[in-house]
Amino acid sequence: MLSANSNEVPVLVVGAGPAGLAAAIELARHGMPSLLIERRTTLSSHPRATVLSLRSMELVRAWGLEAEVRARSAEVDPRMLESETLASAAAGTALQVGYPSAEQSRMISPTTPACVAQDDLEPLLLAHLRAAPRSSVKLGTELTGIFFGTDGARADLRDVRTGALRTVHARYVVAADGARSAVRRALGIPLIGPDNLMEGYTTLFRAPLWDVVGEHRHLIYSVTHAAAPGVFVPAGPSDRWLYGGAGAPDDHRTARLIRLGAGVPDLPVRIEQARHFSSGAQIAERWASGCVFLAGDAAHRVTPRGGTGLNLALHDGYDLGWKLGWVLRGWAPPALLDSYEAERRPVAEYTTARSADPGGSRRAAEQEVRADLGGRIAHVWAGERSTLDLLEPGLTLYAGRGEPAWESAAKALQARIPVALRPLDPVAARAVGAPAGSALLARSDGTPVGVIPTGAEPVASLRAAVAGVARGRCSERPAKAIGSRSVDPAPAPC
Fold first, then answer.
1. Which of 84, 211, 313, 397 is a Cys-bridge partner for 296, taking CB atoms 3.0 to 4.6 Å apart?
2. pLDDT by residue (tens digit) across 460-481?
């Protein structure tokens, strides 16, 4: 574990939300120490988000946490049910909100989306990070000043409970400190786009609503009752729910609206907490400055439409974490870090525009899943494991089983980036993009970085492909259009 008193850290992660936790977890997975600080002494107990997308669950699976997340999630239809009240759910209409069904998911992924509360997910990620051998976490520690230089950043920290001061030097900084990011302000980076697009409140409460909806279990419920229009969202498998409405939160008034929306006049309701929210659709003018990188809400703000904020943040942190890991381990040049914004920004632009669209919640799954999964390799079952499960922290080479030339080439390779050979059944190899005699090379996030064709000399071709990655060059891959926008980035340093 990184010493809690060390004044030198490879990476300082500011903020223990989804982006910061994901970045620190990926750094640990790549064997790199980090110091994660969080001003709060405890994580939030308000479930601001309640759904993990297909790609988010693939990341959770890669971290070995899928079973634990499933234990905290509710089994639901990933569509929104629109009805007059929850009691009339049987007469409601199911509407797509961009998440694939279990049947659709199984065709393209080894997992499925999950209905899990953010305040259940974050402690799980935090515990996983704390168990990592080379990570340090300091809750109740605020950033009071930061100074940037050519060799990194000096950060002044303060323990909010004792007032103790500390200064650390970090080679890189991940600013995952939220929409009001102090690091972003220190860098003078503005947010571009409209603010205050949606305003209202969410109330966390307990009530036996699963009994009310019966077999009609959905990810979200839109209630159209004339006197109590609003949204009900399950916060996991228990009787915890969120109610969203307009105006100012008032416990007595909200309890009355919940009963009206539920269609159960004597429903027992216990209000736990309420939060006002004001959201915009904004993106930071740039996501990096020297050694500092913005992630999550510090880099972009979205409205609740589509339920994408948590997932965007996780994906940012994951992408930045493995790329920092590669650079710090000497597997790739610092130019690799240029691909962070180049690859993530188009996705954020697409999703931010969706969240600004008044109809942005209602999107077909086949459209939104492409933005979610990006350009990763295909999921194909190789025995009991997916091709995604076979990815290693370095490079992974997929080739048909029974082709000894690739095994010999991998063994003969002398490269600074480790390459793991994954022999596949010939049918699986073809499905993943490596038909007979060829091989596919992929980054640790599953992005293809080279296809070595049939007939190429294995040793020389593999050596050249790996050297190209080490120099920051990738094979080009076409962008995939989603609607009128492209969310697979143009080729960037890899």
1. 313
2. 999 999 988 877 655 433 333 3
Q: Residue 223, SS3?
A: strand
Question: Residue 72 pLDDT more than 50?
Answer: yes
pLDDT, position 482: 33
Measured between alpha carbons, how far is 156 from 153 in angstroms, rounded to an integer?
Answer: 10
**Closest-CA residue to 400 (of 433, 424, 377):** 424
Bridge partners of 165, per DSSP, are 158
pLDDT digits (tens, 9 = 90+) for 257-298: 999 999 999 999 999 999 988 899 999 999 999 999 999 999
Q: Would you list the DSSP string of 275-329? A: EEEEE--EEES-SEETTEEE-GGGTEE--STTS-HHHHHHHHHHHHHHHHHHHHT
Q: Cβ(236)–Cβ(74) under 8 Å? A: yes
Residue type, 256: R
d(CA 275, CA 201): 5
Distance, CA of 431 to CA of 381 (rounded, Å): 10
Q: What integer pLDDT is reported at residue 67 of this predicted model?
A: 98
- Closest C-alpha among 392, 391, 414 to residue 470: 414
* CB of 245 closer than 8 Å to CB of 258: no
Strands 395-400 and 419-424: parallel
Share of the chain above pLDDT 90, in %: 85
* Closest C-alpha among 318, 320, 312, 328 to residue 293: 320
Return the bridge partners of 282, or none: 301
Q: Report how far residue 239's alpha carbon sits from residue 204's, in angstroms, rounded to the nearest whole number.
A: 10
Q: Which of 106, 116, 134 is nearest to 47 (CA)?
A: 116
Using CA atoms, how far apart are residues 237 and 266, in angstroms rounded to an integer? 22
pLDDT tens digit sequence for 342-398: 999 999 999 999 999 999 999 999 989 999 999 999 999 999 999 999 999 999 999
Give the Å distances, CA to CA, from 95 to 68, 263, 347: 29, 21, 23
- The three-class DSSP label of residue 394 is coil
pTM for the structure as a whole: 0.93
Tell me how far apart the alpha carbons of residues 182 and 228 are, in angstroms, rounded to a whole number: 39
Distance CA 76, CA 115 (A): 7
Q: What is the CA radius of gyration of the chain?
A: 23
